[in-house]
Amino acid sequence: MSVTPHAYGPRVHLAGGAFVSTAIARASTEEVSRTELLALLRSVYEVLLAQAFEELPLTEAEVATRMSAKHPEAAIWRGEVARDAGSVVICDVIRAGILPAQLCFERISQLLPGADVRLDHLNIARSEDESGRATGADLSGSKVGGPVEGATLILPDPMGATGATTVCALEHYLEHYGRPAKVLLMPMICTPEYLRAVLDFDESVKVYAGRLDRGLSPSEVLACTPGERWDEERGLDDTNYIVPGAGGVGELLNNSWC
């Protein structure tokens, strides 16, 4: 699969490719409808999940196909597959994360029917000051199905702005439910600031992103490979919203503007 070259280190994977970039570009326009946005988001997350799926424990397999009746000795496929065991926990951060989390839950459950696959729910909202600037994140409730010790924890929240929501979610898991073996973050769009926050938070974190936005960086920085001048990159405006970004993804997905 195509990936975007960058200098953020080996724990960051930018999906790249015309399919993902076209889908996200369309999803961020004024004229996109809610129905179309839902379909576009699903399309992007099919790609991100396919890439992040490589992080699951793998094993060598021998699979007898339906051609075995005619060619019993030859109709055996041998190769590497994800191990159908262990624990995978998908975290739905309400509200923009509802759809991608459900998609990941369904796809992994289909592919690994013998694994312990679970969908958790966290209700986290941005906290803002009087000027409307995002100052952090507040967790107001959760529905977590049990420990995550040794599991692969997947958090597919579409908009990775400051990283505060993601860090809040990870702090909640680490404090109350144990330490996962691996954390896979899957934002549709993220910023350099987000990457810094989540990668510095814990070494188990890896990021699979559809697009990186750093539109408020100086022109000479934009001319460099992403991450080459990381400290000078900027993707957040003064209210901590992503630029270019997409604007109001959670509100449009849920038709909820309050």
Write the layout of secondary structure elements.
Layout: E1 12-14, H1 18-27, H2 34-52, E2 58-64, E3 76-82, E4 87-94, H3 98-111, E5 116-128, E6 134-143, E7 152-155, E8 159-160, H4 164-176, E9 182-185, E10 189-190, H5 192-201, E11 205-209, E12 211-212, H6 219-222, H7 249-254
Structure description:
This protein has one domain (12-251): Rossmann fold (3-Layer(aba) Sandwich), CATH 3.40.50.2020. It contains 7 helices and 12 strands. It has helices at 18-27, 34-52, 98-111, 164-176, 192-201, 219-222, 249-254; strands at residues 12-14, 58-64, 76-82, 87-94, 116-128, 134-143, 152-155, 159-160, 182-185, 189-190, 205-209, 211-212. The strands form 3 sheets. The chain has a 7-stranded mixed beta sheet, with helices on both faces. A 3-stranded parallel beta sheet has the order 8-10-12. The chain has a two-stranded antiparallel sheet with strand order 2-3. Helix 2 packs across helix 3.
Name the features.
single chain; 258 residues; alpha/beta; Rossmann fold; 7-stranded mixed beta sheet; 3-stranded parallel beta sheet; 7 helices; 12 strands; 26% strand
Short précis:
The protein is of the alpha/beta class.
